[in-house]
Amino acid sequence: MTPKRHGPALTEFPNDLEIVLTREFDAPIQLVFDVLTKPEHLIKTLAPYEEEVTVCSIDLRVGGDYHFVFVTGDGRECSFRGTFLEVDPPTRTVQTWLFDGWPGVEAIESVELREADGVTKLTHRLAFRDKAGRDHMTKTDGLEANYDNVEDLLSSLLDQE
Known about the structure:
By secondary structure, this protein is of the alpha+beta class. The chain has four helices and eight strands; from the N terminus they run ββααββββββαα. It has helices spanning 29-37, 39-45, 131-136, 141-160; strands at 10-12, 18-25, 52-58, 65-71, 77-88, 92-99, 106-116, 119-128. The chain has an eight-stranded antiparallel beta sheet. The chain is globular and about 45 Å long.
């Protein structure tokens, strides 16, 4: 049985425009990358609190778009979309980030992975266009819960091997 890390992610606010979340997973880098980028895995991990994922499309190439929608328990749709600016499997993606619930708020999102001794460290950065946009993101618990889902799926996939 693979041990569950589920320790809290480290969330930092290095300046008025950025949020940086780091977390480690007891899994090889390629598997972590696949879980973060393949629809068959994303549909199981995107919604942070077991909401229903209704749209999960990803065209993982520079210039390709993604669109994710999940419905909260109270029936609210949360829609995220963007375009890939960089794709360097299995170590890095950079994409635009738009949440339809916050018109005018835009960010550049990057996910970097580094593996050492079978542990993959994830660094997730959101760099907002302006301070007003960054100020919308006052809580990161949804993002942390999303990565709890990733950890659970990784453990499940590793247990199947």
